[in-house]
Amino acid sequence: TQPGSITVPIQTVKICPDSNLLATPWCPAPIDKQYDSLGNSSDTIPEYYCNLHNLDAAQFPVPVGWNVDNTYFEQQEEQARQAEQAELDAAAEEARKREEEAAAAAEEAKKPDKPATDDKKPTKPPKPTPPADDGQNASGDEGAEAPASTG
């Protein structure tokens, strides 16, 4: 400190950035803010506590006439409930898929075994072989010659 200068005491307090009031234990992201303890500044230490994140206004008083706004806590509870429900829904969906897979596997196990084939195309029955020529003509007469054509 230089001779003739005055040291202004600085006080650091936790402030809720959402309300710009003194932070409560429930404020999610309080910041440290420094104030001139002598009040030589237009920016003075707030007298009251945050009304947005306050579960105990008796211990952490809010400005007169201000209501404690528990919207923050209601939102936190709703988000927690939604996250829990999402986990339950995901678990139920996973269980449903496992049940479907198990049922499909059980159905597949009930089917008779099919012979393995290399060709995936359906097989055609073999073509019938023509009867062997036993020396009979179309009329069934053995040894008879076909009539000669005239003319």
Strand content: 5-15%
Task: Note the gap between the termini.
Answer: 149 Å
Largest sheet: 2 strands, antiparallel
Strand order of the largest sheet: 1-2
Q: Strand tally, please?
A: 2
Q: What is the element layout, followed by pairings?
A:
Elements: E1 10-15, E2 31-36, H1 71-110
Antiparallel strand pairs: 1-2
Give a written overview of the molecule.
The protein is α+β, with helices and mostly antiparallel strands and 151 residues long. The protein is built from one helix and two strands, in the order ββα. The protein has one helix at 71-110, and strands spanning 10-15, 31-36. Strands 1-2 form a two-stranded antiparallel sheet. The longest helix has 40 residues, at 71-110. The termini are far apart. The model has no long low-confidence stretch (mean pLDDT 79).
Q: What descriptive keywords fit this protein?
A:
151 residues, alpha+beta, two-stranded antiparallel ribbon, 8% strand
Structure in a nutshell:
With 151 residues, the protein is of the alpha+beta class. It has one helix spanning 71-110; strands at 10-15, 31-36.
